[in-house]
Design brief:
The protein is an alpha+beta fold and 151 residues long. The chain is built from three helices and six strands, in the order ααββαββββ. The protein has helices at 9-21, 23-28, 59-75, and strands spanning 31-36, 39-45, 82-93, 101-111, 115-128, 131-150. A hairpin with a 2-residue loop joins β5 (115-128) and β6 (131-150).
């Protein structure tokens, strides 16, 4: 069982700075909603320029967000001299990605010294009167394997 405690300040700073250096994520507009040990939640607001030809947010954007949520969840359990790279993932796209914003929750399933297995769930949300409403629907599920690398 992974302890979902608050992150120490140095680990939180390392993860926030890392996301800021990921130009794909910043271009997409992905931000951190929650951070804890072994769990990271990322948000993506709807933007028309992220859509495919039918008006749904592109699967590539949804997958990038889920992969990053898994990666940062794994990274949250790594010592300061280690980071992670994705070595494998499987994504199930459950329904077209439509909504006002999207949230990927990445969680560590099993953390090892070299390989860490994670899962992510992406949900679509609709905003009501300027406030977040309840999730509309699960958009995607991911299982991913991350490999520890020296930084």
């Amino acid at each position: 069982m992974i302890n979902r405690s608050a992150l120490d300040p140095e680990t939180e700073k390392r993860i926030r700075e890392s996301l800021g250096r990921q130009t794909l994520l910043t271009t997409l507009g992905i931000s951190i909603a929650e951070l804890s040990s072994g769990r990271v939640v990322l948000d993506l607001p709807y933007r028309a320029d992220l859509c495919q030809q039918h008006g749904y947010v592109h699967a590539g954007a949804i997958t990038a967000m889920a992969d990053s949520a898994c990666g940062y969840a794994a990274s949250s359990l790594m010592p300061a001299d280690r980071d992670v790279l994705t070595v494998e993932f499987k994504v199930n796209l459950l329904t077209p990605a439509r909504g006002d914003r999207f949230r990927a929750t990445g969680e560590v399933v099993r953390s090892g010294r070299t390989l860490t297995v994670c899962s992510a769930e992406v949900v679509a949300w609709a905003d009501a009167d300027g406030r977040p409403a309840t999730p509309l629907v699960k958009v995607a599920l991911m299982q991913a394997t991350m490999m520890a690398v020296a930084v």
